[in-house]
Here is the input.
Amino acid sequence: MALDKEEMSDKVLAIAEALLNEGGADNLKARTIAEQAGISVGSVYNLFADLDEVHRAVNMRLLDRLGATGIAAMADLERQGVTDVRHRILAMAAAYVRFVEAHPGSWPAVLAFNRRRATRPGPDAYDALLDALFDIVAGVLKAGDFGLDDDRRALAARTLWSSVHGIVTSGYVANSNSRQAEEIWRQIELLVGVFVKGLEHGGAFAHADAKPA
Amino acid sequence: MALDKEEMSDKVLAIAEALLNEGGADNLKARTIAEQAGISVGSVYNLFADLDEVHRAVNMRLLDRLGATGIAAMADLERQGVTDVRHRILAMAAAYVRFVEAHPGSWPAVLAFNRRRATRPGPDAYDALLDALFDIVAGVLKAGDFGLDDDRRALAARTLWSSVHGIVTSGYVANSNSRQAEEIWRQIELLVGVFVKGLEHGGAFAHADAKPA
DNA sequence: TGTTTTCGTGAACGTTGTTCACAAGCTCAA
DNA sequence: TTGAGCTTGTGAACAACGTTCACGAAAACA
Here is the structure.
């Protein structure tokens, strides 16, 4: 009957994710977790060093899931024989938007957590997951031949990802909820359309100047 | 000798901004403010309803300052007779990057605060400041004639702003600090170059399909 | 069975945001 | 000047939080 140590950890993480989704990072409380998991506060600290580690573990799960949905979306297009780069990028972006919408509270928490982590230690499994996501986008860009070397293609992938990400997060601070989705998608369509057109016409090779001070 | 009520509020806000800049949102503590301002805890709550209001007020100041630097940057270009749209957008972006770098702790706090505010009440002075920023970008886009109607130009402005914003915030979660600035700027240059080229070639009018489910 | 190790427990500590009864100071009419 | 009414500063007090830890139970092993 009693749960395994790992099973209990999973249960705690599931509860933690639900709490984050409902009320954001402030809603992740040790006592609430303990109560809902049917264990004591001390036991939570037996499974995880502190709440930050719980939060980190939840984020890992989310990033994993995001990567999986991204790959699944690409596989779908593959099966349908869609090769158009614009379509494929839009599909990737759509997958990302859906994912964020499916995790209204916990995804913002991922970002906020990332920011706090900025001063902390070096690279770890966290960055590996993010890099995997970048690679997927880079793979899509590889399909459309824009005459980009590997470096520039990787740069373009990071730029595209960051831009979509910015659109989504900026969009969800606005007000009405029904308009948000439409506005976000219009921005993404504009961005991707302009991005592809720009790459086709060599916009990526614009000479560099006007650097910041 | 004694400070005015408004003077004391300013002092509190200055202290609060410094605290946010040093340690992020978690570092904004009522007792610390009180101690540094030379008043009691209760007096802080006499000036502001709660710490959220303090945080909000600090953010207002930051947004105001950001708007001012943006306008100043535009005025500089005007004086120098720079009319090239790409140059002007890059200058805007550079001003934004400089601003974020100048407020390493408090600017992330602005964003995190905005996110918490998502569920809260309706529009207020906050959104007005953000809209003003959008208008500046839209003004720049107006200069370069891309055959955009007002709606599309506003959309493009928001898209561009959100994208730059995403690049900057995504960039600063990475590791090394010296490389960050360079990476961010390379992404911005790519984005702006591709964006302008894309607009010139009508990428903004790509037909809409592949909408999200 | 005896011993050692592991593990769950919840009381306890320090810190946080926020409140509130009280006191000190200010304003202004008498 | 005096005193009543009001505003404003104060810090003790409260509840809730993250985290720790001594203790006892259970499990593992000899």
Remarks:
- Chain A touches chain B through 67 residues (CB under 8 Å).
- Residues 34 and 43 of chain A are 8 Å apart (CA to CA).
